[in-house]
Amino acid sequence: MSARADRERLACQARLLATIGAPAEVGPRAARLGRRLAGRAAAPARFDDVAAMPDWAGWPAPRRESLADFAAACACTAALQRCIDGRRLARVARRIGEPALDAILATPPGLVPVLPEAAAALGEDASFAALGAGVLLCEVGNRPASVERLRPLFAAAPLTLDVERGRSVAHAARGLFMAFEAGALEAAA
């Protein structure tokens, strides 16, 4: 393993530990200053919160934002399949790519749960990003402390969604994202 790969791995681990609020070996003054500067609650993360952290919490921001775009597009599957507005379809295609949009449009009805917030998210980029962030936060489940720790990772303020439906959409989005990232669907198209 190269020194660069070691540094990248350490940076990824540091980002993840900073995200989950893992306690560091610092003195009480430094800890108070760190909490004040970070705006974090004084309560430390519980072990089950740490264990429930999704892997994307440690990803670089562009990759995480791309996954959030896939999550928003998957959440909008039913609305996209009914959509005849070329501008809205082009906006989604610009964010996730045309092959991914084609795969979403070809999804059988009922495979991805319908979220009531999805239709409004197609209106503008900020609401689309907020929907994607909200879907990804559903992976954490009903862990308010973890959700609050993960919120700052997104540029847009995440929407609050039904956790069970959002988790199903997140799993569908993750599968599609990983397939496209690996190039499997792109090579088949």
- Count of separate DSSP helical elements: 12
> Runs with pLDDT <50, length 5+?
none
Chain-averaged pLDDT:
82
Please state roughly what percent of the residues sit in beta strands, choosing from under 5%, 5-15%, 15-25%, 25-35%, 35-45% or over 45%. under 5%
CA-based shape = globular
Largest sheet: none
Query: What is the element string, with H for helices and E for strands?
Result: HHHHHHHHHHHH
The assigned structural class equals mainly alpha
As a whole number of angstroms, the C-alpha radius of gyration is 18 Å
Measured between the Cα atoms of the first and last residue, the distance is 35 Å
How many discrete structural domains?
1
> Roughly how much helix do the residues carry, as a percent range?
55-70%
Number of DSSP strand runs: 0
